Amino acid sequence: MAATQPRAAAAATFTFLSYNTAKMAALGGLPTLIDNLPTSPNIIFLQEPNLPPAKLHNLASWLGYSAHISPSPPDCTRSLVTLCKQDIFHLITFTDITPGYAQLVQLPNLTFLHLHAPSGSANIHERDTFFRRDIATAAAASPVPPVIVGDFNCVLHPFDTAANFGNKNCPALSELVQLHHLHDAYLLLHRRQIPAFTFRRRQGEAGSRLDRAYLPHHLQHHLQQVSHHHCISDHAGLLVVMADIGPVPPQAATATGRQYSYWKLNTSVMSEETFLPSFTTMWEGLVAARPATAVDADWWEEAAKPAFRDFCISFSKQQAHRRRQLASFLLTALQEALTGDDWPAAAAIDRKSTRLNSSHTVISYAVFCLK
User: pLDDT tens-digit profile of 143-186?
Assistant: First the structure.
C-alpha cells in the first residue's frame, strides 16, 4: 500500500473507493478490503462485478450500502456498480451514460463520472472515441464539474507503465484533462512516490497505474489522502479522502473562481452535430434532480437557466479547443506539402480548412505567405 500524506484535518470528510473486482468471487474480496481500509468509504465504485443482481444487493446491504447496477451492453456482460452508504443513497441521482462503461453519479454537492474504459491494445481507437465522445460529452453536460474516477485502461505519463507506453497512452484523455483543468489525485500528493502501479495481471508482467481519480480545480485543495490497497483482484483499490467540500461552483467558474455577470448565447453552437445529444444528457439529469416541491419559475431561474448557460459555455470551449488543434495540424501538414512542392496536397488541405470558419483565415494566409 502506498504511504499517505494527510493534509490539515477537517471537521468532516467524504471518502470514495474505486475497485476493479476482475470478476472474482465476493466482488474481489470487497468485504475484506473494506475491513482493512483506514476509513469506511461513503461511495464505492466497482468495475467488472461478477454477482447476480439479487446476491449483489444482499451483499451490499450486509456491508451497509445500497447498490445501483448499470445495465450491461447488448453484446457483452460488462457492468458497473456504485455502492452508496444507505443514509445518503436517497440523495443521489444515477444516469447510465454508456451502459457497462460510464455512469453519472450526482450528489447534492458533488458529481462523479464513474467509468471503465475499453481495454487492450486492440481497442485503442474505441478507447479514444470513448473519451472524446462519451466522457467529453458527459463532462461538458454536467451542471457542476465532475470527479472522473475508475479504471481508465490507459495512461498519460511514461512513469505510469513499465512497458509499451505508446500503446497505452491516450491523447483523447489528455485533451479532456487539459480542457477541464483536471488534476490526478494521486499525483497531487505522491508525485515523488512513482511508479505506483495499480494493475499487474501476472507476476513479472509489466504493471500500469490504470485506476485513477481526476479532480476538478475547485476540489484539489480539499484532498486529504490518496492510497492504493491490494486484495485478491489483479487491480488495487484506489481510496480517496476529501475534506468537507461544501457548495460546488458551477461550470462557468474559471480556474481562478471568476464568475461571469452577463452572458448571451451564440446560437451558432446549436448547429454543432454533438450539441443536441450532449444537451439532452444534461437536461435529463437536471430534470431528474429537480425537487418535487420546486416552483416552476423559481426552478428555472435558480437551477435550469444557470445550468443551460454553464453547459453552453463549457461545450463552446470544448469545440473551440478542438478547432484550434485541427487548425494547428492542418497548418503543419500544409507547411510540409508546400516545402515538398506537393501542390495538390496543399490545395486539398486548404479546402479542408474551410470547415474551420475563422481558422480558415489563418490557414489561407499561411498558403499566401508560403507561396
Answer: 788 999 999 999 999 999 998 898 899 999 999 999 889 999 99
Handedness of CA 353, 358, 359, 363 (dihedral sign): positive
Torsion (CA) 159, 162, 163, 165 in degrees, nearest 10? -20
d(CA 199, CA 184): 17
Grid coordinates representing 72?
450491461
Q: Looking at the DSSP assignment, which residues form a beta bridge with residue 105?
A: 94, 112
- Please report, as a single letter, which amino acid is at residue 292: A
pLDDT above 60: residue 296? yes
Give, in order, the Cα–Cα distances in Å from 166 to each of 112, 146, 158, 160, 162: 28, 28, 9, 12, 11
How far is residue 56's CA from residue 9's CA, in Å, rounded to a whole number? 35
Confidence band of 304 (pLDDT split at 50, 70, 90): confident
Residue 102's H or E segment, with its range, is strand 102-106
CA dihedral 294, 264, 320, 358 (to 10 degrees): 160
Give the long-range contacts of residues 158-161, CB within 8 A, separation 24 or more.
Answer: 159/194, 159/195, 160/194, 160/195, 160/197, 160/208, 160/209, 161/197, 161/206, 161/207, 161/208, 161/209
pLDDT in tens, 315-357: 777 776 676 667 667 667 766 766 777 777 767 766 666 555 4
Contacts of 11 (CB under 8 A, 6+ apart): 244
Angle at 135 between CA 132 and CA 137, to 5 degrees: 80
Please give the angle made by the CA atoms of 209, 213 and 214, to the nearest 5 degrees: 115
Average pLDDT over residues 105-118: 93
Q: Which pTM was predicted?
A: 0.68
d(CA 41, CA 112): 15
pLDDT for position 269? 66
In angstroms, what CA-CA distances link 302 with 290, 298, 308? Answer: 11, 6, 11
Place of cell 489563418: 362
- Dist CA 45 CA 56 (whole Å): 13
- State how far the Cα of 82 lies from the Cα of 102, in Å rounded to an integer: 11
Could you give the CA distance from residue 47 to residue 40 in angstroms, rounded to a whole number?
19
